[in-house]
């Protein structure tokens, strides 16, 4: 902790709580008090609220969640000088995954929103076709959605993925279209894979790294030991730099990633170069 602080880094708690429970104001106050005490005990710099639960508009949970964010922010700021309270939101404000929050009021109440610009691919909406985890145009449209409802760009931090998605293809066409299942895609098989493993696999794949111009994203495919074809979509310094340019040009507060452990921090020369390039892509001024 002291080392992190010596480098100017902030370390915060991760906060998650049932939206059913926070309808009770007494419960909210007790939960917040426990988080503040934990932060003080561990010399933390605040809390990141990561509450990825379905909430319907104008429901009791809708108002309770907004109240939780405001009360958490007020309490942390009062009890821990210079503390930070942030809130994780999906890639768009349009009720993604049933998360119909009062985003405008939540943004106003906390220090900033961390926009999770990943897991954007909806197979049922995409005819069960594999695609980018964080497609360029769709990602940027999500930020414009937040800005259109009155949220300042300075309240938004772009979150990009340092992991990819490995899809098992039921059919892989000659033009690289990976069909994962028949609609409604219930039999689709896919899993997350960290960037460090992708880098070990991509250069040995028959396709090598390919680039999709429409989604501005790299991908590749390979065949497993059982003979099944896979297609892996991921982000690399090239795709990240494009989004980082938008962050700068649109005046967003900043950019971050999920998550740092997806990179290879070994002494291997190739891995060190790949890791440095990923960090530089976040800091790059275009």
Automatic annotation (TrEMBL):
Listed GO biological process terms: chitin catabolic process; oligosaccharide catabolic process
Location(s) in or outside the cell: Lysosome
GH18 domain mapped to chain residues: 1-286
Example GO molecular function: chitin binding
Record GO cellular component, one term: lysosome
UniProt KW Nucleotide-binding keyword: no
Keywords: Glycoprotein, Glycosidase, Hydrolase, Lysosome, Signal
Family: Belongs to the glycosyl hydrolase 18 family.
Protein name: Di-N-acetylchitobiase isoform X1
Organism field: Vicugna pacos (Alpaca)
């Amino acid at each position: 902790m002291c080392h992190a602080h010596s480098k100017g880094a902030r370390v915060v708690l991760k906060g998650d709580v049932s939206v059913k429970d926070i309808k009770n104001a007494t419960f909210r106050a007790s939960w917040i008090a426990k988080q503040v005490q934990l932060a003080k005990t561990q010399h933390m710099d605040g809390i990141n609220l990561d509450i990825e639960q379905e909430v319907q508009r104008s429901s009791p949970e809708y108002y309770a969640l907004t109240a939780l964010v405001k009360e958490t922010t007020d309490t942390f700021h009062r009890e821990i000088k210079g503390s930070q309270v942030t809130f994780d939101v999906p890639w768009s404000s349009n009720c993604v995954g049933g998360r119909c929050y009062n985003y405008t009021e939540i943004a106003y109440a906390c220090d900033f929103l961390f926009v999770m610009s990943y897991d954007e691919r909806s197979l049922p909406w995409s005819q069960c076709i594999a695609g980018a985890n964080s497609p360029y145009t769709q990602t940027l449209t999500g930020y414009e959605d937040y800005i259109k409802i009155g949220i300042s760009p300075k309240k938004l931090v772009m979150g990009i993925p340092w992991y990819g998605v490995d899809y098992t293809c039921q059919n892989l066409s000659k033009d690289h279209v990976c069909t994962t299942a028949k609609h409604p895609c219930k039999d689709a098989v896919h899993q997350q894979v960290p960037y460090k493993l992708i880098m070990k696999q991509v250069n040995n794949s028959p396709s090598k790294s390919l680039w999709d111009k429409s989604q501005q994203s790299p991908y590749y495919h390979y065949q497993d030991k059982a003979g099944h074809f896979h297609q892996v979509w991921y982000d690399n310094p090239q795709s990240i730099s494009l989004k980082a340019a938008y962050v700068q040009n649109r005046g967003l507060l900043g950019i971050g990633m999920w998550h740092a452990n997806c990179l290879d921090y070994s002494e291997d020369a190739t891995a060190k170069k790949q890791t440095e390039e990923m960090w530089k892509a976040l800091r790059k001024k275009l």
